[in-house]
Write a structure and sequence with these properties.
The chain is of the alpha+beta class. It is 45% helix and 11% strand. Strands 2-1-5-3-4 form a five-stranded mixed β-sheet. A hairpin with a 2-residue loop joins strand 3 (96-99) and strand 4. Helix 1 crosses helix 2 (26-46) and helix 5 crosses helix 8. It starts with 5 loop residues before the first helix and ends with a helix.
Length: 203
């Protein structure tokens, strides 16, 4: 059996993140088996001391030996506090970040999954001087109360508008369904996403 290589690693990483049964990496998992893949990936990671990825437009390198989740790296090592710790199990959306334009939980994301990725946190979505249309729309619609969940919701909305610039209200609600919010501002959030989409589509 040939060892796992970097191309296999990238394919299976994307498969595990997408949870799609039709992903081509399915064949790699079948070939190696669950236990075989676990052993192979451990060996691959041990030979990958530095993980390189792009964070908010900046080339970034981290030590793969650091036993941190991506959220811990962001908050504790890099001082990027916009992504919040909620459930710690990838279920609430408070820690969402954009990874290659997909909204993913960072609280349960191992550092090795970042290799070669383009990552955007809420800090990279916009700035106080130049906010993203979504941020402007959320302010205009007063689409927040406590605000704890809002960074993750903005990231999920940004991912939606990247793949679907003109979503329907139903599509917006479906895209935000993974983000938990108890404040009761959901209708205003949906209106804000639709308003941002209209602004971004305007000539």
């Amino acid at each position: 059996m040939r060892p796992i290589d970097s191309e296999d690693f990238a394919l299976v990483t994307r498969f595990l993140m997408s949870s799609s049964p039709d992903h081509p990496a399915h064949g790699i998992l079948v070939r190696l088996g669950r236990a075989g893949y676990g052993a192979a990936i451990s060996g691959f990671i041990n030979n990958m001391p530095i993980i390189r990825f792009r964070l908010n437009g900046v080339e970034t390198s981290v030590d793969s030996a650091a036993e941190l989740t991506f959220l811990e790296l962001l908050r504790d090592r890099l001082g990027l506090l916009g992504s919040h710790h909620g459930c710690g199990a990838g279920q609430c959306g408070a820690c969402h970040v954009l990874v290659d334009d997909h909204a993913l939980s960072s609280c349960d994301m191992p550092l090795w999954a970042l290799e070669g990725k383009d990552v955007t946190t809420i800090e990279g979505l916009g700035t106080p001087d130049h906010p993203h249309p979504l941020q402007r729309a959320f302010i205009a619609e007063q689409a927040m109360q406590c605000g704890y969940c809002v960074p993750g919701i903005l990231i999920s909305a940004a991912a939606l508008l990247k793949r679907n610039p003109s979503p329907t209200e139903t599509e917006v609600r479906q895209a935000l369904d993974r983000n938990l919010c108890r404040c009761g501002a959901q209708n205003r959030m949906v209106r804000a996403v639709l308003a941002a989409a209209a602004e971004m589509a305007a000539p």
